[in-house]
Amino acid sequence: MSRIQAVLVLVQSLALLFMNSVLGTLVDLKGATAVVVTSAVMLVGVGLSGLASGPLRNDRTGLGPR
Question: How far separated are the first and last CA of the chain, in Å rounded?
Answer without folding.
Answer: 34
